[in-house]
Specification:
six-stranded mixed β-sheet, metal ion binding, EC 2.7.10.2, Prot_kinase_dom, about 20% strand, Kinase-like_dom_sf, alpha+beta, three-stranded antiparallel β-sheet, 13 strands, Phosphorylase Kinase, domain 1, transferase
């Protein structure tokens, strides 16, 4: 492929190869227990809460007085994520609120608005619902709340106690369905990972964090990233690293890594390896090993996702059908 020579001649990529971005370790503390009222709702009832909010311009531009912020849930590329409540008439709607980190991103407001408009146009039960944007002393994205939080953190806490492998596969089936929807809309996620899969409950998952997503233009097969940035290299396909090219088939590669994370109950992929070592492993046709509890057939799906030539990888619609047969067999 000749990519190794290209990254060695690119100073920015050389730095990434030597010190790839790593997820922070999860503290050994118990997460706060989600409110029973939210976690005990059925999938349908939970969905109805957010489906009842109309997708109008008036709702999209939220008033600060209608938004109440509570505790911090975490931090992302754009800033903090807070738990909150959106007051609409007499209804109190649980929400997650992404706040803008203005000091680190000079163009953050425009990037945030791109993310907001993009998400507002997406409508699928396995995609986090965008409710609107609130502007006051900072800019906030207001999203539906997934009470159990990121899949990787929940898996580390659960360690298989609450989530059997059958449940894990069901969750990843839902992720594949959500990604098939994005694929059908010509959207590239570009940051699919277990940290960006949120759990409403133990059997209902939603894909989140479209901060780096872009709509593909008609006739375009990919878009080029302007710069490497804080790349999650361990989830990236070779063509993303070598040529800055992203499309649905590079999302498929990332899905394979996400499926590995899920079936290994939150283990970190390529732990301890530098970027150049990961690329050497991939170029030598080696891949992550099968997690201990992962069914061989599910691991075969991962291997299909990690084929070097993107044209040999399955589509997300293919993955949905491949996974369907394993939903009640593990």
């Amino acid at each position: 492929m000749g990519g190794g020579i290209q990254w060695q001649q690119n100073p920015a990529l050389c730095n990434i190869m030597q010190e790839p971005w790593e997820e922070p370790d999860i503290p050994d503390v118990e997460a706060p227990t989600p409110r029973r009222a939210l976690t005990c709702l059925s999938d349908e009832d939970s969905q109805k809460i957010y489906d009842s909010v109309p997708r109008t311009e008036d709702v999209f531009n939220l008033h600060r007085g209608d938004l109440e912020l509570h505790e911090k849930l975490g931090a992302g590329n754009f800033g903090s994520v807070m738990k909150g409540v959106f007051r609409r008439g007499g209804q109190l709607i649980p929400v997650a609120v992404k706040t803008l980190k203005q000091d680190e991103l000079p163009n953050a407001e425009s990037e945030l608005m791109k993310e907001a408009r993009l998400m507002a146009n997406l409508q699928h039960r396995n995609i986090v619902r965008m409710i609107g944007v609130c502007r006051s002393d900072m800019i906030m994205l207001v999203l539906e709340l997934a009470p159990l939080g990121p899949l990787n953190k929940y898996l580390k806490r659960a360690c298989g106690r609450e989530l059997t492998m059958n449940k894990v596969i069901e969750i990843m089936f839902q992720v594949a369905e959500g990604m098939a929807y994005l694929e059908s809309k010509n959207f590239v996620h570009r940051d699919l990972a277990a940290r960006n899969v949120l759990l409403v409950n133990e059997q209902f998952a939603k894909i989140s964090d479209f901060g780096m997503s872009k709509a593909l233009g008609l006739g375009n097969e990919y878009y080029k990233a302007e710069s490497a940035g804080k790349w999650p290299l361990k989830w990236y396909a070779p063509e993303c690293i070598y040529y800055f090219k992203f499309d649905s088939k590079s999302d498929v590669w990332s899905y394979g890594v996400t499926l590995w994370e899920a079936t290994s109950y939150g283990a970190k992929p390529y732990r301890g390896l530098k970027g150049c070592q990961i690329l050497e492993l991939i170029e030598n046709n080696r891949r992550l090993e099968r997690p201990d509890q992962c069914p061989p057939g599910v691991f075969d799906i991962m291997l299909r996702c990690w084929r070097h030539d993107k044209n040999d990888r399955p589509s997300f619609r293919d993955i949905v059908e491949l996974l369907r047969k394993f939903r009640s067999k593990s």
